[in-house]
Automatic annotation (TrEMBL):
Secretion signal span: 1-19
Coiled-coil ranges per UniProt: none
Organism: Cloeon dipterum
InterPro entries according to UniProt: C-type_lectin-like (IPR001304), C-type_lectin-like/link_sf (IPR016186), CTDL_fold (IPR016187)
SUPFAM superfamilies found in the cross-reference section: C-type lectin-like (SSF56436)
Record-linked CDD domains: CLECT
Protein name: C-type lectin domain-containing protein
Keywords attached to this entry: Signal
Domain called C-type lectin: residue spans: 39-178
Length: 188
C-alpha cells in the first residue's frame, strides 16, 4: 500500500511540473483569454449579475488562484449555505463534480479562511459536507491535523458533492473565478 501512495505522489508531482512548465511557457492562454473576456463583459461598471465563471481545466489550488488573480478575478467566496447550494446547483448542471473555491489555510496553518483577510471558515460551519455512507464528514484533514507528506500542512477548499471539503492544495480540480468586489466598485 505504501508504494502505491508513493506512485500517486510521484504522478501528482509530474502533473504539477507539467502544469508549471506550461504556465511558464505562456500556456493556458485560452483559459486566460476566456477569463479576461469574462472580466471585460461582466466585471466592469456596476454589474452584479453573472459574475462567476467556471473553468473546465483541472489545476492545483495555487495555479487556479494565480490564473484568476492574473485576470483581475478571484476564486469564488461563498458566504452562506444558500450561496453554496446555488453555486453547486448551477454548475452541477454542466457536469462539474468539484471546483476549488478561495478558502485555504495557506496564511495560517491552524485555521481556514476566505482569502488572506476574509472571514474564518469555522469547523462547525453548515457548509462543510456532512458525510454519507460513501464519504466521511468534512473537514476531516483540518481536524486530524494530518502531517501526511501528501498534504505538506496546507489545505485548500473545494466544493464536492454539494458541500465544502478540505483537500490537499496540490490536488487538481476545476475551479470557479468571480469578479472581485474592488474591481466592480472601482470601475468606470
Amino acid at each position: 500500500m505504501g508504494s502505491f501512495l508513493w506512485v500517486l505522489v510521484a504522478l501528482a508531482v509530474i502533473f504539477e511540473a507539467s502544469a508549471n512548465s506550461k504556465i511558464a511557457r505562456g500556456g493556458f492562454s485560452d483559459i486566460k483569454t476566456k477569463l479576461e473576456t469574462h472580466y471585460q463583459d461582466n466585471c466592469t461598471g456596476n454589474r452584479t449579475e453573472n459574475n462567476i465563471i467556471l473553468v473546465d481545466s483541472m489545476l492545483s489550488w495555487e495555479k487556479a488562484n494565480d490564473i484568476c488573480i492574473s485576470t483581475n478575478l478571484s476564486l469564488v467566496t461563498l458566504k452562506s449555505k444558500t450561496e453554496l447550494d446555488e453555486f453547486y446547483n448551477k454548475f452541477s448542471e454542466h457536469d462539474f463534480r468539484s471546483a476549488w473555491v478561495l478558502a485555504s489555510n495557506c496564511k495560517n496553518g491552524l485555521i481556514i479562511q476566505w482569502g488572506e483577510s476574509g472571514p474564518i471558515l469555522e469547523a462547525d460551519s453548515e457548509m462543510w459536507f456532512k458525510g454519507n455512507e460513501e464519504a466521511v464528514a468534512q473537514p476531516n484533514e483540518l481536524l486530524n491535523n494530518s502531517s501526511d507528506i501528501l498534504y505538506k500542512g496546507h489545505l485548500c477548499v473545494a466544493v464536492i458533492l454539494g458541500g465544502l471539503w478540505d483537500e490537499s492544495c496540490s490536488f487538481r480540480y476545476k475551479f470557479a473565478c468571480e469578479c472581485r468586489k474592488e474591481a466592480i466598485m472601482n470601475s468606470p
